[in-house]
């Protein structure tokens, strides 16, 4: 009933504004194909995650037809056509149980991607050259066939600092040495359990590095379930309540603890920021590399494990936390923080991140960038 209501509303809006040149949808709004086809309105899909995930998603209907049992039980990594094989442990959560509604929902929508008039990708060849090239050249994708692709990334939000607390944070960063601060944030929905938050705090303290920690009220539910409860309670008591006793006082001067949220774009773009401990959501990934900041990868849910592996093993701008147990210990956290912030490996990653920053800026440059040209191409098509 809800979907029927949404469909009727979309059709009504489209008719009211006249016949638009095109409609751009999220990949989970494929019912728009059915609405727009009789109206002769071309529908473009905007794939907001990595191109590597899109390649896998286009291959998923074939896997569903040809493979029996669960994908996570396969003896070998998934050989996605034209791409680096994906370890079964890195598969996105939505495809780990083929008997649930979430799997069928995901399969249904990605199975309709070929119906789009074109697909916008929030990426560029500088960061995913193999995945993008395979979409246009590999026989598998040509045989589907998929519509024309338009890499237009990296598209990220603009800097916005308005709150007084944000200004205080930026002022603190202004006083720190260049590339000396580790930014710790787990995206819009990531949280840790109480035990993991304790180990994280001790790891940061033992590392003796400068940091900005975005601390949320911990949830002892699973990380994916905690997404829907992030920031929903407990923040009124402040982070000190759920961090080790005395942590805030002991790290005062070289660390700042922020409750729930921080202006991520502004922090990553600040000259003082030298590393980013992240869940590796694609938006955060693009924001980090566009700022030339290397990453400590701590994936939590969805396709973040795929992203983390690609960033470490293919792009070379991240190091993954070794999660040998349910709770990552303070010693491991201290190790990866020191590695990124003061080790030779960190310097190598920082240089690669710097080059990616330049590549991102070039891709978006007016008149000559690949992403700019890609968007200009489709815009010119709409004009005609």
Provide a concise account of the structure shown.
This protein has 384 residues and is of the alpha/beta class. It has helices spanning 2-16, 31-36, 51-66, 101-110, 129-137, 139-143, 164-174, 194-207, 223-226, 247-250, 264-268, 282-290, 304-315, 330-342, 344-364, 370-383, and strands spanning 23-26, 43-47, 118-121, 148-151, 181-184, 210-215, 255-259, 273-278, 295-297, 318-320. Helix 8 crosses helix 14 (330-342) and helix 14 (330-342) packs across helix 15.
Structure description:
This protein is an alpha/beta fold. Helix content is 44%, strand content 11%. The strands form two sheets. The protein has a six-stranded parallel β-sheet with strand order 7-6-5-8-9-10, sandwiched between helices. Strands 1-2-3-4 form a four-stranded parallel β-sheet. Helix 13 (304-315) links the parallel strand 9 and strand 10 (318-320). The protein starts with a helix and ends with a helix.
Provide keyphrases for this structure.
four-stranded parallel sheet; single chain; six-stranded parallel sheet; alpha/beta; 10 strands; 384 residues
Describe the SSE topology.
Layout: H1 2-16, E1 23-26, H2 31-36, E2 43-47, H3 51-66, H4 101-110, E3 118-121, H5 129-137, H6 139-143, E4 148-151, H7 164-174, E5 181-184, H8 194-207, E6 210-215, H9 223-226, H10 247-250, E7 255-259, H11 264-268, E8 273-278, H12 282-290, E9 295-297, H13 304-315, E10 318-320, H14 330-342, H15 344-364, H16 370-383
Parallel strand pairs: 1-2, 2-3, 3-4, 5-6, 5-8, 6-7, 8-9, 9-10
